[in-house]
Amino acid sequence: xxxxxxxxxxxxxxxxxxxxxxxxxxxxxxxxxxxxxxxxxxxxxxxxxxxxxxxxxxxxxxxxxxxxxxxxxxxxxxxxxxxxxxxxxxxxxxxxxxxxxxxxxxxxxxxxxxxxxxxxxxxxxxxxxxxxxxxxxxxxxxxxxxxxxxxxxxxxxxxxxxxxxxxxxxxxxxxxxxxxxxxxxxxxxxxxxxxxxxxxxxxxxxxxxxxxxxxxxxxxxxxxxxxxxxxxxxxxxxxxxxxxxxxxxxxxxxxxxxxxxxxxxx
Length: 266
Known about the structure:
single chain, 18% strand, mainly beta, four-stranded antiparallel sheet, 3% helix, elongated
């Protein structure tokens, strides 16, 4: 190959496809992500579908509102390095408290942050909002699921449903917790891992399932405590690597021959 007078090694065009394993790396606890082995030429072309769910919010006390789901961050075809990266899973929040952030710590990280929830009686953006509450003799709303609104007040609200992410084959939807009730007025159920609210006086709201990022259930009257939010989750599905590059300066005849042989990047 002619290199156009450039000093350095001659570089052939690279047109390479490396198939990914097709499996998903699921993290229920903090750890280290290690990418699959591939040629050095593929180092700058790696991508993955990445899902990060923060810990869910804990439910409210005393006929409390159900906790909202933790923040859900989904990045399709995200650029990842060829080296290992730390993964952090956020814990669920206690009563009326936010859950902690979950992060896939690549050079360009994918993070599901913790954050300030909206005040009672106000729905947030649907990503990590808590359901609104109404005082006795009314009943409370359920928390919001990821990508959805909270359950409404009146009869105790069920938690929001949440959103699926087929790009990582993940069953986690980060549902909301159910609202607490009062004797004679049923509490709301949690959804997709969210804790259910309770009605008995002094009763503790249900805890959300681990590694769902779902919200805790609302507590019963007489200062019944709210249930804890579920811990977070991270899923990483590496995609096939397609490498197409041609460095240097090329004669038209060399480009033609490489194209004819199927070796020239498109």
